[in-house]
Recover the amino acids of this structure.
């Protein structure tokens, strides 16, 4: 039961939705409308599970004083603070979720700069890698480096000033050799996704069951 | 030289990124074919059309994606094209609010003056739904456009912040038949069915363009479930790193064009300024000076690193750098 019921649900639901996609009839559309109403509700249950798991893991770390347990507070405090400020405290006190409010202030002045900063660190690591790791050790590596430099300089205005051929060759590389290689990869990935999804629907692939799949 | 502490490299990059912000150079930016395609398509739209701008990005990529979304929003407002705004993640909804606040911020040199849904309720009750009539009635009530305002934008007539819904690929599929069933209320709690722009454009088949400003593969949802299912024209506005992956969709005609990274946003801003749709360029154009200098710095790092590598004989078999590299 623990295995067969989920497999049956996936098989019936998957086949039903495949058939529904290709039938432009009102009854088919009614099935789809019902599914789209249920889908977000089921997704929200997954959110509840995820949050519960996060709280359990981090509170366990704090209780046991595991390594770097102090950072668990950095996870749990905002996790509770944001819904308290945005949803639980009255709008007259905290302003709700719209600007101006404590929630909006914390989002725009704490979360946005933090996430932008984390992404910006990449620029420094790329600079370090450019000096320490990008080596023309072979013919192919040399071709790769030359193409990278042409595309890189062709993308910025200074490349146009250094030579009008920089952006032209850079664009040609992106539109033709790059597109050809990406198309081959995309096709392969697409067929792989199709095969995996069919295996899941028909019960051949059961890793998603977790422990119940054994 | 190859054992240079990488903190010196970090310092050099930091300095070359900060200086162009202080000393503006203003190097020219020339539009590419991929961005021009989007611009030309938007330029033929008007008040009878409508577009979607999907803020499918998080704050991490907002430095690249926000200028692109803002530029398209300004173009739409300049041509009185109604704009529906959606987000694939909850953080994207915050980005929508930030983008609309930026375009309608009175402290900017130029801005669009925002009128929220409740503020023009009396005009709706009179049955006025066309833009010209709404503006006339609004100004007849004594409201005046500020000196640096480029025009009025009315919530529900010029823009609607639909926001985030979970499982967004299902939402796109559902919007193919009806936008209102997926979004009965917008992100501010306003009834979407009462909005004039939704009464005129009920589903994705009646939408003329979806521009997805994306920092993830979520942009492909619009092709799979919008373009292929209901024939919705789609344009990409993606980060520079992702832009190389999506040239295949341009070649196959599945997207009408693509803006790639800050450069794409700068090209769009330049075209807006050149055609007079917006008086000035903005942050993306200013950022191209920084990108130019930073790219040259990285090129020099690659060059110097390779010269040091070969001059030191490390390319020969048996030789090793300190630390075994």
């Amino acid at each position: 039961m623990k295995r067969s019921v989920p497999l049956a649900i996936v098989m019936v639901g998957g086949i039903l939705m495949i058939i529904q996609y290709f039938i432009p009839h009102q009854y088919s559309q009614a099935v789809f409308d019902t599914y789209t109403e249920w889908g977000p509700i089921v997704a929200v249950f997954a959110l509840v599970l995820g949050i519960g798991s996060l709280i359990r893991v981090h509170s366990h770390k704090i209780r046991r004083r595991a390594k770097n347990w102090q950072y668990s507070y950095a996870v749990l405090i905002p996790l509770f603070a944001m819904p308290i400020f945005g949803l639980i405290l009255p709008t007259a006190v905290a302003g709700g979720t719209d600007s101006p409010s404590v929630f909006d202030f914390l989002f725009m002045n704490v979360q946005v700069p933090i996430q932008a900063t984390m992404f910006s660190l990449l620029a420094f690591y790329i600079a370090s890698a450019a000096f320490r790791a990008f080596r023309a050790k072979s013919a192919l590596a040399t071709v790769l480096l030359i193409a990278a430099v042409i595309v890189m300089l062709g993308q910025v205005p200074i490349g146009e000033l250094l030579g009008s051929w920089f952006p032209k060759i850079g664009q040609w590389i992106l539109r033709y050799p790059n597109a050809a290689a990406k198309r081959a990869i995309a096709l392969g990935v697409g067929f792989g996704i199709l095969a995996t999804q069919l295996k899941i629907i028909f019960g051949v692939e059961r890793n998603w069951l977790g422990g119940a799949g054994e | 030289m190859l054992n240079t502490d990488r903190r010196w490299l970090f310092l050099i990059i930091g300095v070359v990124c900060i200086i162009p912000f202080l000393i503006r150079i203003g190097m020219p930016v020339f539009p590419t074919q991929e961005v021009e395609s989007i611009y030309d398509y938007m330029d033929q739209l008007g008040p009878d059309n409508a577009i979607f701008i999907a803020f499918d990005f998080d704050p991490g990529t907002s430095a690249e994606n926000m200028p692109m979304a803002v530029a398209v929003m300004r173009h739409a407002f300049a041509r009185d094209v109604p704009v529906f705004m959606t987000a694939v993640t909850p953080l994207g909804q915050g980005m929508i609010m930030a983008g609309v606040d930026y375009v309608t911020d009175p402290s900017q040199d130029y801005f669009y003056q925002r009128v929220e849904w409740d503020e023009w309720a009396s005009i709706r009750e009179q049955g006025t739904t066309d833009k010209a009539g709404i503006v006339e009635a609004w100004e007849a009530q004594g409201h005046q456009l500020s000196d640096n305002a480029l025009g009025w934008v009315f919530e529900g007539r010029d823009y609607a912040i639909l926001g985030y819904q979970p499982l967004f690929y299902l939402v796109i599929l559902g919007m193919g038949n009806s936008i209102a069933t997926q979004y009965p209320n917008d992100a501010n709690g306003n009834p979407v069915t009462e909005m004039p722009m939704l009464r005129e454009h009920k589903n994705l088949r009646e939408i003329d363009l979806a521009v997805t400003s994306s920092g993830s593969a979520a942009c492909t949802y619009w092709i799979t479930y919008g373009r292929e299912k209901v024939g919705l024209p789609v344009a990409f506005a993606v980060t520079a790193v992702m832009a190389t992956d999506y040239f295949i969709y341009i070649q196959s005609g599945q997207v009408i064009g693509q803006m790639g990274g800050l450069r794409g946003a700068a090209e769009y801003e330049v075209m807006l300024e050149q055609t007079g749709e917006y008086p000035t360029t903005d942050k993306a154009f200013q950022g191209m000076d920084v990108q130019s200098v930073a790219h040259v710095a990285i090129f020099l790092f690659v060059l110097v690193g390779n010269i040091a590598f070969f001059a030191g004989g490390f390319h020969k078999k048996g030789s090793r750098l300190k630390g075994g590299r």
Remarks:
- The longest helix of chain B spans residues 283-311.
